[in-house]
Amino acid sequence: MQSTFPSLRLIARSLACAAALASLSTLTACGGGGGDDDNSSPIDKYVGTWYEACDVSDTSSSRIRYVVTKTGKTTSHWVYTTLDYTNTSCSGTGTARGADATSEDTYNGTKVVDGKTVDKMSSVETSNSYKYIAYVNGNSLYFGTGASDAEGYEMALSTTPGATR
Predict the structure, then answer these.
(1) C-alpha pair distances (Å), 15 with each of 4, 9, 20, 22, 26
(2) Using CA atoms, how far apart are residues 157 and 145, in angstroms rounded to an integer?
């Protein structure tokens, strides 16, 4: 038996289609219902400005500043600048000494060193390339020290931060 109200059937189908589309758009808006966040990266913890410890002489001081920017999910660009100060506390605005040095660094996974999960990194500078380990704890950045393993990464982590934010 056919309905005498074909327009009601059309409205019911339209409502069902609208409900299905609304469900799909909700899933799309939230990223499809699960999975990894494509914006997160192991490089994120390094992004920003870091300073090495202040090196003090009789009447002045200096320190190195790292500015790290993310260039990809596992890659970063580092700019190293030596800053000179006219005081013995590295306070105020430092004056850049000479040209900046730069490197392109790549995250290569993790390993456990001294009970901590550290990042295995490789760095390419203008005339040098090397591997290193790094570990971020809050606003402190630690680097590896000492002998390297078969892959070329240090086997110990420095107990003193290499830089802080």
Answers:
(1) 19, 10, 9, 10, 16
(2) 6
Residue 133 near residue 155, CB atoms below 8 Å? no
Query: Poorest-confidence range of 10-19, 29-38, 101-110, 144-153?
Result: 10-19
CA distances 84 to 59, 66, 94, 163, Å, are 11, 14, 5, 17
CA distance 119 to 62: 28
Rounded mean pLDDT of 127-136? 96
CA–CA gap between residue 101 and residue 79 (Å, rounded): 6
* Mean residue pLDDT across the chain: 84
Question: Per-residue confidence at 132, pLDDT binned at 50, 70, 90?
Answer: very high
**Tokens (6 digits) for 12:** 């019911």
End-to-end CA distance of the chain: 77
Decide if 103 contacts 123 (C-beta within 8 A): yes
pLDDT digits (tens, 9 = 90+) for 30-67: 444 444 456 789 999 999 999 999 999 999 999 999 99
